[in-house]
Amino acid sequence: MWVLFFYSLFHLYYASSYAYNSFYNHWTCIGLKENIDTTKPYSINVGDLPLVLWKDKDQWISTVNICKHMGSSLESGTLKEGCIKCPYHGLEYNYNDRVGETVEHEGKLFWAYKPIHKKPYSVPFYNNPDYATSTIEIDMDASLTDSAYNTMDVRHPEYVHNKFVGFGNSIPPKNIKYYKYTDRSRVGLSFDYISNKVMQTINDNVKVTHNFHMFVYPTFSWSRVTFDKKHLIIGVNLLPLGNKKTRWYITLCHNYYTSNIGKKFVKFLATTILNQDYEQMKNQCYENKLKKQILFNYIFKDEEVLLHLHEIFKGYYYPNIDCAFDLYQDYTKTK
User: Fold this and answer.
1) How far out from the chain centre does Cα 76 lie?
2) What is the number of alpha carbons within 13 Å of residue 164 lying toward its C-beta?
3) Which of 115, 120, 111 is closest to 62 using CA atoms?
4) 281-297: b or e for each residue (b if 16 or more CB lie within 10 Å)?
5) Which of 40, 75, 206, 225 could be disulfide-bonded to 232 (CB atoms 3.0-4.6 Å)?
6) pTM
7) For residue range 251-296, what is the model confidence (pLDDT) as tens digits?
8) What residues are paired with 52 via a beta bridge?
9) What angle (nearest 5°) sits at the alpha carbon of residue 75, between those of residues 69 and 77?
């Protein structure tokens, strides 16, 4: 009995430490720059870790959104000379009180506790002058892992995106190939797909699109849809907000329909398709031991990429309050 009790305590501690090491040190997108008002504090959660951020000249400062005096949240505090002042008793926080690092990258804000990489991953062609870019933000009622699997799943368009405005087709994809990489944190997928009649009309009556998808553990995916020398790049940054809540920050990058009206049209199509994903994401089950045990006991043909992605995510679980507590313990030891 006591052996089982202490084993459970050890398992909980080890699991939370591992989750901190494997997740919080990766760059995680925490907002679209265009949606953030830099004249006031910005609050966001990374899993169960509450953060508050503010800008001092050209640098961002982040700290835990709980005052170390009497536990007040700081997002309603005032900003002055690079500091944030707690609204309860006036305690000030500055750069020396920062928790983690924050950078601006390709129109987005990214945070990491102790960054493994120098900068976040880039969306291909983002800075190419021949490509137009736009962004979308949407909250999905699904876990981070379900969101990741969705970005690499070639079979759901037939059922989820088979609406009037969608690209789903009952004709299965062809030439499916998947790619492993030596760093073991990435997986790739390519295939050819015949779009439905509506999308063929939009795409200058080109029937077959050539597609490539890549997922980079733990939160970044990008895909390329190509037809007749025209390319649409879709970058997706994932932010876990709950066991069954993930925010998708999406960058669209394309070398056709590049006028202002064209950009709005592509964004409208993408938003419509994302709303179809939203309906399916609501149908995904909560993450628990039973789901983990059942998941991928059956796979369709040519779904090896999902099995490999599942292997990559074996060490991941939602960064809950125990992980946030573990991170803050590490932070206080270094001060």
Assistant:
1) 27
2) 0
3) 111
4) beebeebeeeeeeeeee
5) 225
6) 0.91
7) 999 999 999 999 999 999 999 999 999 999 999 999 999 999 999 9
8) 43, 63
9) 65
Q: Which two tokens stand for residue 129?
A: 């002058």
The Cα 335–Cα 331 span in angstroms is 7
Contact between 174 and 285 (Cβ < 8 Å): no
Q: Is there a shared CATH topology between the 28-112 domain and the 132-315 domain?
A: no
Residue 32 in tokens:
């679209």
What are 49-60's pLDDT values in tens digits? 999 999 999 899
Written as six digits, the tokens of 210 are 């050539």
β-bridge pairing 92-93 and 59-64: unpaired
The three-state (H, E, C) secondary structure of the chain, written as one string: CHHHHHHHHHHHHHHHHHHHHHHHCCCEEEEEHHHCCCCCCEEEEECCEEEEEEEECCEEEEEECCCCCCCCCCCCCEEECCEEECCCCCCEECHHHCCCEEEEECCEEEEECCCCCCCCCCCCCCCCCCCEEEEEEEEECCCHHHHHHHHCCCCCHHHHCCCCCCCCCCCCCEEEEEEECCCCCEEEEEEEEECCHHHHHHCCCCCEEEEEEEEECCCEEEEEEEECCEEEEEEEEEEEEECCEEEEEEEEEECCCCCHHHHHHHHHHHHHHHHHHHHHHCCCCCCCHHHHHHCCCCCCCCCHHHHHHHHHHHHCCCCCHHHHHHHHHHHHHCC
Q: Domain 28-112 carries which CATH code?
A: 2.102.10.10
pLDDT category at 328 given cuts 50, 70, 90 is very high
Q: 3.90.380.10, 3.40.50.12780, 1.20.272.10, 3.30.450.40: which CATH number matches 132-315?
A: 3.90.380.10
Q: In which residue are the tokens 């299965």 written?
A: 172
What does the domain layout of the chain look like in residue ranges? 28-112, 132-315
